[in-house]
Amino acid sequence: ALRPGGVQDLQDERILITAGPTTTAIDAVRYITNHSTGRMGAAMAEEALKRGAVVDYVLGVDKGVVRPKPPRGTEERLHLVEVRTAEEMAAAALERLPQATGVVATAAVMDYAVAAPSASKLKRASDAIALDLVPSTDVLGSLRQAANGQWFLGFAAETDDVEAHGAGKLKAKGLDFLFANEVARLGAAGQTGFAVGTNAGVLLSAKGARHELALGPKSEIARQIWDLIA
Ligand code: CTP
Ligand code: CA
């Protein structure tokens, strides 16, 4: 078993981690986002730091987002940059890709952006309104395209057919590893996924390995993921 201050199996790694939600503005005061709080990314970063890695952490910030707490003595190996939109996240991550040995994409990136955000505040009216949404940047996709030998770990949160969707994304996105977990359906409570401290799921590899990780604190899930891929 690996203990804090124990095995330094990521000493030669500089890991680029994306985490948290991205947001897209509707107008000067309103925006759209998702339920991500960055907890899984923080757990992945803290465990990587513990094992000796340097971590470039690109965090989408919103109310309630959590930042990694570097273990004592690892503070200078954590490089944090905060962004809000998918485009900002892609730019910050691409800038840091060349020095990375691997990429961990835990971010919940908004798949759509508001086509024409209003610089001034929109006023309330009695008519229904429609909001035009256009596809936003695929952060992981751009990183994968610009890659130069880095390994890639993606995350997928699904409400249905978790493992089938996970396996599809592993292949379609050209990743080395993918961790897939279930999220509660709208209106239901869950112990995995967004804004909770625990998770469970399945780690898949491009070589066909498959490991089920039982429900546990996100720190424990992160430890097991690093054990398996380190
Ligand atoms: N991802 C990303 N940029 C996006 C969308 C996804 O970097 N615009 C990354 C996520 O950080 C994650 C992986 O891609 O590591 C899978 O994200 P997911 O949202 O599950 O994939 P999508 O292809 O967007 O599929 P879905 O339609 O299920 O949202
Ligand atoms: Ca998505």
From TrEMBL:
Keyword terms of this UniProt record? Decarboxylase, Flavoprotein, FMN, Ligase, Lyase, Magnesium, Metal-binding, Multifunctional enzyme
- Residue ranges annotated for the DNA/pantothenate metabolism flavoprotein C-terminal domain, each copy included: 10-229
Pathway involvement? Cofactor biosynthesis; coenzyme A biosynthesis; CoA from (R)-pantothenate: step 2/5; Cofactor biosynthesis; coenzyme A biosynthesis; CoA from (R)-pantothenate: step 3/5
Q: How and how many cofactors are bound, per the record note?
A: Binds 1 FMN per subunit.
GO molecular function per UniProt: phosphopantothenate--cysteine ligase activity; phosphopantothenoylcysteine decarboxylase activity
Top-level taxon? Bacteria
Annotated spans, Phosphopantothenate--cysteine ligase:
15-230
Cofactor(s) required, per the database record: Mg(2+); FMN
Q: What is its EC number?
A: 4.1.1.36, 6.3.2.5
Q: Which positions does UniProt annotate for CTP binding? A: D111, K121, F155, K169, K173
Q: Which residues form the signal peptide?
A: none
Q: Which reaction does it catalyse?
A: (R)-4'-phosphopantothenate + L-cysteine + CTP = N-[(R)-4-phosphopantothenoyl]-L-cysteine + CMP + diphosphate + H(+); N-[(R)-4-phosphopantothenoyl]-L-cysteine + H(+) = (R)-4'-phosphopantetheine + CO2
Regarding protein family, the annotation reads: In the C-terminal section; belongs to the PPC synthetase family.
Q: What's its job?
A: Catalyzes two sequential steps in the biosynthesis of coenzyme A. In the first step cysteine is conjugated to 4'-phosphopantothenate to form 4-phosphopantothenoylcysteine. In the second step the latter compound is decarboxylated to form 4'-phosphopantotheine. Catalyzes two steps in the biosynthesis of coenzyme A. In the first step cysteine is conjugated to 4'-phosphopantothenate to form 4-phosphopantothenoylcysteine, in the latter compound is decarboxylated to form 4'-phosphopantotheine.
> Which named protein is this?
Coenzyme A biosynthesis bifunctional protein CoaBC
Which species does the entry assign this protein to?
A: Devosia salina
Q: Gene name on record?
A: coaBC
